Structures are given as C-alpha cells and as structure tokens.
Amino acid sequence: QGGEWQASSAVRGPPSRMFGRSGYNLAGARAGDWISLRANDLDGFDRVHVSMRRAPDGGTFRVRLDGEEVGVVATRAAGTDAFVLRLDLPARRRELALELLGDGPVERLGWGVDRRGRGVLVEAFGIPGATIAALDNRAADAVARELAAATPALLVLEFGTNEATSRDLDAPAYAAALSRQVARLRAMLPRTGILLMGAPDAARPMRRGGSACGGRRTPLPALAAGRAAQREVARGERGGLFDWGAEVTRGSCNLPAMARGEAPLMRTDLVHFTPAGYRLTAELLFAHILRGAKMEAQGA
C-alpha cells in the first residue's frame, strides 16, 4: 500500500468506523493513494470480491487488474450501508489494486481473490486480543451482505482464551452473550452449520510458586468456567463443538512438555501455539469435521 491509510479493528476501533466480517477497516481519502494484493500462485485468480462502506460523503476509487484499469467505483450514496463488489474475470490475473481519486473518504472492510472450480475455500478472520464482544462491533448489515455474497457451508467460532484471562468473568453472562451471537449468525445463515471451538488449555509461567503441576505455572483464572459455558451453549444452540483442550493440549500439566523439544507445539508463554501446534490443531479439526459430515450423511 502507498499513501496515508488509517487502519482500525473491531476490538479497538472508533465507533464512527464500520466493520464487516473481517473486523478490520482501512480508510483513505487522498488522491493517488493505493492498496494492492498479488497472488504468489502462478495460476493467479479469476474472481475478486471487495467489501466497502457507502456513505453520503463517500469517495471514488479505480480498480486495476495487472496494472490495467477495469472500472471506477463510487461509494457515495444517500444513506450509510455496505456493499460487496464482485468480479468474475474472463482470464486469470495476478494482481488487484485499488487507487483513490481523492473526492471523498473510502473505507475498505475486506477483500479477497479466488478461482472458480471444485474445491474448498477456507477464510480465516482473527484479531489479536479479541473476545466474543468484538462481534457486537461488526455492522449486521455489512456482515449479512458479505455472507450472502458467498454463503459458507460451515462457520467456526473460536473464542475463549482472552476471556479466560479475566479474574471476574461472569460465566452466565458470557454464556448468554455467546448464545446470542450464535443465534444472530444462524438468523443470517439458516442453512450454514455452526461449530464452536472450545478454548485450549493455557497457563501463565511464574518465576516462583505457582498453583498447578508442581508450580511455576498457573492456569488462566477463568478458563474452566469459560469452557463450561461454551459446552453449555453448544448443547443449547444445537451446534457442534470441537474440544481443543481434549484433542490437543490434554490438560495444563502437558503444556511445558509441549513447549520443549526440537519441534515444540507450544510457545514458552504457554498460551500461543507454534506453527506446528496450529498445524496439528488444523488436522484434528479437519478430521472432526469429516466425522461430523459422515454422521450427518448417515442420518445419525
């Protein structure tokens, strides 16, 4: 990107900004400022989607593909809402770029590229420090439009570790908030499956003392209560549940061992995983999803 862009997130962003499913907003207004993405894959892409905010003071931007201008898009409208620009391209391209004309502010809520054909498309949206409350800061209209543009077969919600750091978590209130978000998403996506990922084991290393596994570490204070709330909501909302703790970490006492060795699965903070740990999680999650799909196909 080039120019004076302002990035904000649904966790810490100002109330004046609109956030869609990505939870990020990139805003600019100066003529000539640009943002681009380039595919590393030699086959490139033949579909583009860009989610934008429309407003009475909205500006205009050019769309370029491999350096060639293919159109000009205005974001000025009578009211304030979100729209999704989708392009099906006649040939595969390698680079997408947006360039501002400078006639008003432009806010990009999200974008992406892919290719037509058979296969599975996985999109991940995460914000450091996010809790379930961050979903309240996403504009319902924007999220609904983005999801309607490409309705997912499965929606996975993974929250809980950041909530578990709280020493005064209100478990019933947390369960109610999680249940409300599941119901909200189900209303938008009545034919989409919803899967909750239970928070994995995590602990805080301590220089001395400690309260678990011989000391030197203590579990996150609200982890047990938060995971109990997640299980309760999965049952009450008839959603799926992937127990990350049972499948991968298998108890807080295992965390130090997971952080040692030539190929550790955990980082030494005993909260975050290494790439190998996330890869293992992905493989087990995939297997869990396939088992669920098989049971559904069999009518179980």
Helix-strand blueprint:
Layout lengths: L5 E4 L14 E5 L5 E5 L6 E10 L5 E6 L2 E7 L6 E13 L1 E6 L5 E9 L25 H10 L4 E5 L2 H4 L6 H18 L4 E6 L4 E3 L11 E3 L3 H14 L3 E4 H6 L5 H4 L16 H23 L3
Parallel strand pairs: 10-11, 11-14
Antiparallel strand pairs: 1-2, 2-9, 3-8, 4-7, 4-9, 5-6, 5-8, 12-13
Helix pairs in contact: 3-4
What does this structure look like?
The termini are far apart. This protein is 26% helix and 29% strand. The strands form 4 sheets. Strands 1-2-9-4-7 form a 5-stranded antiparallel beta sheet, with helices on one face. A 4-stranded antiparallel beta sheet has the order 3-8-5-6, with no helix packed on it. It has a 3-stranded parallel beta sheet with strand order 10-11-14. It is an alpha+beta fold and 300 residues long. It is globular. The chain contains 7 helices and 14 strands.
Count every beta strand, where a strand is a DSSP E run of 2 or more residues. Answer: 14
Distance between the termini: 50 Å
Please give the largest β-sheet: 5 strands, antiparallel
Task: Classify the secondary structure makeup into a structural class.
Answer: alpha+beta
Overall residue-averaged pLDDT value: 93
Strand content: 25-35%
Identify the strand order in the major beta sheet.
1-2-9-4-7
Order of helices and strands: EEEEEEEEEHEHHEEEHEHHH
Query: How would you sum up the global shape?
Result: globular
List its traits.
300 residues, alpha+beta, 5-stranded antiparallel β-sheet, 4-stranded antiparallel β-sheet, 26% helix, 29% strand
